[in-house]
Amino acid sequence: MTPAHPCFDDPSCYGNASDGTRTWNQQSSPYPINFCAGVTWDGTTLRTQMPYFSVGDRMLLVIMQSDNADTSGAANLTDAQLGPVGLWHMGRLTSYENTFGTWEATVEPAPSPTFLQYLDGTNPAQLCNVPEYSELTLDTDLEAAPYTPPYGGVVAFFTRRLIHNGRAVSANGAGYRGAGDNALAMSFCGTPTMNGEGLGSESHNQSSATRSTVGGGGGALDVGGGGGGGNQTAGGNGGKNNCQPDVTAQGGASASPATFRLLLGGGGGTG
Fold first, then answer.
1. What is the pLDDT of residues 9-30, one digit of tens each?
2. Which of 72, 91, 133, 245 is the most buried (most CB within 10 A)?
């Protein structure tokens, strides 16, 4: 016999409904459902620049990128190769104070010391509020704001009742950024165009035909196709080129972590 889901008889699993009812429509859709901001830890305090959080908010912290991630070109990434990317923590905001233009936040339960050590400013990370509705009605698609380091790419909420009306909750196209416009990144024989963004914080728009860890490669050489972005599966390799038909841009790596992580899809490379 399959055991009942632990939330089956526990409405609190779906949030405390403190944000009441909401209808998501054309008037609200230009704005994200989550307010997100970059966050750092100075050894004693979480710090951010976002003034729109309130004490009592449910909060999500996510590490988005890291130069500690393995960028050696592996085709499939495990937990060790991912480094801290995708690690996350959820809690509730218990204090929030403005100190000389910087907001100091306390989240309970507190993140682990291991998690906090990664928030030293070298690993892009974000802090987002997560609304808790009693009922959410979708009159238009609910979409994540695009990832612009260090925040974005997140759509998250709790609700005890969702009326979707055939509308989608989507983060499509909101992950790591694709490479720049081909008109600004021409490739020639021996010079690849730009690769898409991946796990590394400096991985975007580098002239390379190799994968940039859960990102895509550039067009290998003269008018070759760019590599596709990777995610749970690897991105496709780019099309052949005029200079070296047997050399193509690599698709972005896939990720197969043993632990549950929140990862963005990789950006494609320039053709």
1. 666 678 899 999 999 997 876 7
2. 133
